[in-house]
Amino acid sequence: MFKNWLKIAFVNYRKNWLSTIINLFGLTIGLTGFMLILMHWNDEESFEKWNPKKDQIYGLQSYYKKDNNYGTGISIPMVDRAVKVIPEVKDYVLFHAAGVGYKMSTRNKTAYQKDGMLVSENFFNFFPFKLISGSYKNALKGEASIAISTTTAKNLFGKTNVAGESIKFDNKNYVVTAVYELPEENSVTKPEFVVLPFEQMKNDKEGWSTFNYGSMLMLSKNADVKAVQEKIVTEVYKYRAKVSSGELGITPEKYLELYGPSDSLLTPLDEMKLHAKAYWFGAGDFKTLMILFTLSVLIVILSAINFINLKTAQASQRAKEIGVRKAIGSTKANLILQFLMETFIICITSYLLSLALTELLLPSFNKFYDKEMKMNDWHIFFYSFVMVLLVTLISGLIPAMYLSNFKAIETLKGNFARSRHGVWLRNGILTLQIIISSFFIIGGLIVNQQVKYMMNKDLGYNGKQIMLINFSENDPKPWLKYERLKNEIRKINGVADVSFGEAAPGTFRYSNATMDYMDKSILAQLGSIDYNYLQFMDVKLKKGRWLNPDLASDTINNLLVNEAFVRKFGWSDDEALKIEFRPGFDNKPYHIVGVVKDFNVKSLKSEVEPIVFFHYRETDWKRFQVYNIQLKIKPDDIDGTVKRIKAYWQNNVERGYPFDYYFIDKQFAKTFETYHKQQTLFTILNAMVLMVALLGLFALSSLMIEQKLKDVAIRKSLGASDGTLIFGLTKQFLWITLIAVLISIPISYYLMNEWLKDFAYRIDMPVLPFVLSLVALLLLTFAVVSVKAYQATKVNLVKYLKYE
């Protein structure tokens, strides 16, 4: 029996070869997209799974009610107190800096080593990498201790067994206490070396409000996480408010309201990468991932719909076969099993083709997402095969039930085409397909408009031909280095101007502080600058004046602010110029001498933050954070100028260090990469959906027109013209398309409006995408169906009227 079923199946595949190709193509494309997105999701979920202590390690995130957001910053006294007073908190680790690099020297070699981390001494209690040499006990106990990876050990010493060896950098001698091997598995914590920021932590030891660190906590096994979160609020956050509020003369409750944090959140280590509200290493975008996954599933559903329609479209061709089989005793269950088997053969063939196509596309997909994914995870094969089984059941069972319900007498008489059995189901399926297609068209157009809007928006500054060069981090007095270099670099042919600004667009190296005026406090970004920096960047002055090198007060207690700062305090520009306020970064009042127009420093996704601009010599600590020099390059010979600057830098400034530079406009453009990728993926998915949708239209038009061929024959014999027949056959499809698009419009509006809410600078919801979706789908429907309708007008009258 099974062998006979296979013969019948392959006869029908060959007979309906076009339908077979359409089914294979649609399902292969759908399953390929599903597997690629599933691999991406699985890869994002796999971070830190290697860590044997992951079930006890939690990332600490603090909630600030006033700003309605989460932060990762914490101070040393706060985590110290958490360990002392909360029994469930057993240990903590602090992160001060990542991606740091130094020129390191050993007895035999000097080399620049990058990708280091500055952490607290308990780091290896949380991240027990495989130990190769030395010991983790007291590995980071002293200020002269360093632990290095096997890669760093080979780079500096040519071997890995180097515990006890000496390394010199940052004007100090360090002793290697441990050599470790980094895990091959995914982890955001893969430092090539780790060292204690001894002086920094020593200075911050008593600073309750010095939030210079990210942190993770080690909890006892089976600890009640929710209870620990509540204890952190009562025993740490409220205690800090009690300690610090007295200095400001306010109540602890008012302090919490003004400065926070007001609540805490603990997220397991292996969920931080994708699910954290905020992450010191940079949180993933779970929302976008879910959107992509949902869209990939929708494409599979569309492919399954096509399969259903094409299978039922063949009903009239197989009606007599089914009638004969029923007449000789075949049961309904046998017929259903046979049709399910035929569907499974198509689905499993599509699955095998999609595996090959996924392997073929994976290198490009990896490059697109900067990953190294491989098809070696059984979860990918298992879930994709489960999807195949679901598609088999859904797209096989409905046509199987439909076909097996044919009445033997009617089908053997040859008048099956008159049956309207299942017409509502098929119309509903087509409506669902067009709703999905309409959403993709509308969504794709809105995404394109939003990305184009961000790319063309006036950023409030001019970053063209401005080159930023980062200093190495080993200079004891970086501000003096900058002042010496700016005069020398100006002499290089092709350099038009030189300046320094801490809050440079496209950088993520900045600091914040609270700004207090009377009973109000806000958080503002600090922008230490040289006198000419804002003019250097073509920022517009709205009110007041620029900083002036001839005025001593401009390096003592004068500063400029942006419009966002003034708005946050609720002042007018004129009021701001008359006000003195106390900034959290200094112990003296400051006077505002100018208000500048807002300009984007971080990203167009978020609003411009309040920023204060002051000369770097106004505070002692900001002098030590002069970490770059910025050059305006003349446009006539940019490549030649860059080469001259590089040669000067490597020969006279930082010999042995990499020449770390970028152009500000190109660096800021990288903040759009995520949205460019979303735009690209949406465009690809749009193309896939439209292809599948066109195949779906072809499928259902084949089905319904096939069932109306006898009606066409009768009307044609009565003298109906081809044009009248074509319009009559396409009219129903056009009505279905119109209804489907009208249903999709509110759904698409809601979903795309939710997506746009993520952007501080966004387009108004446009009308054009909704109109274009309606027009495009109506035209496509008419184009596809009218071709099939025209073919129907050439029907053989004798064939369809011989029983009448």
UniProtKB/TrEMBL annotation:
Membrane disposition: Multi-pass membrane protein
GO cellular component: plasma membrane
Chief place of localization: membrane
TM regions (residue ranges): 21-41, 289-310, 335-358, 378-403, 424-447, 681-705, 733-752, 767-790
GO molecular function: transmembrane transporter activity
Keywords attached to this entry: Cell membrane, Membrane, Transmembrane, Transmembrane helix
Subcellular location: Cell membrane
Keyword Glycoprotein: no
InterPro entries membership: ABC3_permease_C (IPR003838), MacB_PCD (IPR025857), Macrolide_Exporter_MacB (IPR050250)
Organism superkingdom: Bacteria
Entry keyword annotation includes Transmembrane: yes
Domain spans labelled ABC3 transporter permease C-terminal: 294-405, 685-796
Stretches assigned to the MacB-like periplasmic core domain: 20-233, 432-647
Protein known as: Antibiotic ABC transporter permease
Upper classification of the organism: Bacteria, Pseudomonadati, Bacteroidota, Flavobacteriia, Flavobacteriales
